[in-house]
Amino acid sequence: MDRLLRYAETLDTAARKAKATAQVKPQDHAFTVAEAYQVQKLSVDRRLSRGEKRIGVKMGLTSRAKMQQVGVEEVAWGRLTDAMLVEEGSALSRKRFVHPRVEPEIAFLMKAPLAGDVTPAAAMAAVEAIAPAMEIIDSRYENFKFTLEDVIADNTSSSGLVIGSWGDPRIDFSNLGVILEIDGKVVEVGSSAAILGNPVRSLVAAARLVAEAGERIEAGDLVMAGGITAAPNLAPGQTVRSTVQNLGAVMFQVE
Ligand code: 0L1
Ligand code: MG
């Protein structure tokens, strides 16, 4: 079997069985970022062939802290499917994941397609609404350790998303205060400016990167803009709430 297909199958199986697997890059030094995106697509195609539906894209490595952690200067993107949606206010099972973490985020809902080099104004003209959101990230690699190539192949740790109420995208969302609480205790605070200085830059980057892969952001898609704070671990029994100034709160429970 082609080596990229083999990596895609291994990562898809690791996600399906919630069982960690070994990184690719330390064993295959020739593995490139371009190949990693091919593995990501092949792996998500397996999910689509099982009946999952594509619902949009996520941006990752969008904060300076995350870029430094992984040692890169460029954002990455991943693909979202409907099976990753967690209903706001509901409980999700810890058993579905290897070692899940949560990130407070902001989500865009698109009303028009977007692809290629676009200005921030053109990107915003394609946005129907914005919402407070959380991403559940879950690396399929042992010990949540990876290289850039590995994490891209692993669909940038994409695993779940929770979306709050949609609001008017014309508000100034460049520097909104964000509080992440677990069981009523504040565990992280941050600002939407942690996303590339302004979340709209993440949407602009998403349009460019998706076009480089020969795809586009579609009307009706969700775009997860990126993590705002460090990502704490999730454990059964927790109630997790993220509040974004002027946008509202979003919560879920872990069981
Ligand atoms: O959404 C993110 O920024 C996460 C990207 C992958 C890095 C990680 O899993 O922490
Ligand atoms: Mg994220």
From TrEMBL:
UniProt xrefs under InterPro entries: Fumarylacetoacetase_C_sf, Hydratase-Decarb/MhpD_sf
SUPFAM superfamilies for the chain: FAH (SSF56529)
TM region(s), chain numbering: none
Entry's Gene Ontology molecular function annotations: 2-oxopent-4-enoate hydratase activity
Signal peptide range in chain numbering: none
Domain of life: Bacteria
Gene Ontology, cellular component aspect: cytoplasm
Protein name: 4-oxalocrotonate decarboxylase
Organism listed in the record: Aurantiacibacter zhengii
